Amino acid sequence: MTATVPAMMLWGLPQDEPKPKSTGTLTSGSITLTTDTPEPVNPKGPYGERMSVKRFEKALRVVIDSALTTTALDTAHAHAHNAANELVTAAGDLLGAA
Q1: How much is the average pLDDT of 49-74?
Q2: Which residues make Cβ contacts (< 8 Å) with residue 5, sequence separation at least 6?
Q3: Digit-coded pLDDT (tens) for 2-11
Q4: The pTM is what?
């Protein structure tokens, strides 16, 4: 994390947060929405200007969110693996008892 946050601040975050824009139409009780999200723009200017408190906070949130999501997925995978092993063991016990 120590290297990731500064790297995100310098190169990994877009210059500005994309601001999606939705437009829609209502016809015969049906709503149709279209959302356009502009492409992210790489940051410009000297590296020193990119090292701001605002970019630090955003980079830290992205890195922590990524770490927590990965940990949650790993935990869910481990639980699923353990449950599958228990099912296999139970099935083997049932077959052995028959």
Answers
A1: 87
A2: 56, 59, 60, 63
A3: 888 888 888 8
A4: 0.55
